[in-house]
Amino acid sequence: MDLYADNFRRLQDLTDFDALSPGVFYSEGQDGLLLRLEVLARHNYTLELKLSYTLRDDRTGALDPSAMIRIYLDSAQAEVSHCYIGRRWQDVLGIHPTPAQMVSHRLRMNGFLNKWLLYLKQQKHGRSSWQAEPIPAAFTGN
């Protein structure tokens, strides 16, 4: 649970939860990559987000990497429910993983999010860097 609480705090540094409403937002960091935050749903006590770069997997066309995140506002926790980092979970675990394999995979996904959020902070993504869709004209990357 400490990892989920740490992910919550890191996401809170990245964006203002109170200001988020469904839609797509972009932030360009020092690395020149365009970060995409899609707010899928807002409920009384939860937010559902998809965090990704605007890069696409050549094979599938999916945003890569990407993380589906559920934020629990009442308990100050954030968890990754799905991740795409070049492969889907079925490619990693097979079609019928054991419960132990699923728990281990979820911990790895949340560990990945934790490290990614730290990297994003180092690249100067933060509350003031977000712009609502469309993609900002100033972005010159690929």
List the helices and strands and how they pair.
Elements: H1 2-14, E1 23-28, E2 34-42, E3 46-53, E4 66-72, E5 77-84, H2 89-93, H3 99-122, E6 131-132
What does the model show?
The chain has 142 residues and is an alpha+beta fold. Helix content is 30%, strand content 28%. A six-stranded antiparallel β-sheet has the order 5-4-3-2-1-6. It is globular. The chain starts with a helix and ends in a 10-residue tail after the last strand. The model has no long low-confidence stretch (mean pLDDT 84).
List keywords for this structure.
6 strands, globular, single chain, 3 helices
- Mean pLDDT comes to 84
Biggest sheet features: 6 strands, antiparallel
What structural category arises from helix and sheet content?
A: alpha+beta
Low-confidence stretches: none
User: What's the number of extended β-strand segments?
Assistant: 6
Our Rg estimate from Cα atoms comes to 15 Å
The neighbouring-strand order within the major sheet is 5-4-3-2-1-6
First-residue to last-residue Cα separation: 38 Å
The helix-strand sequence is HEEEEEHHE
Helix content: 25-40%
Which strand-content bin applies to the residues?
A: 25-35%
- What is the molecular shape? globular
The count of helical stretches stands at: 3
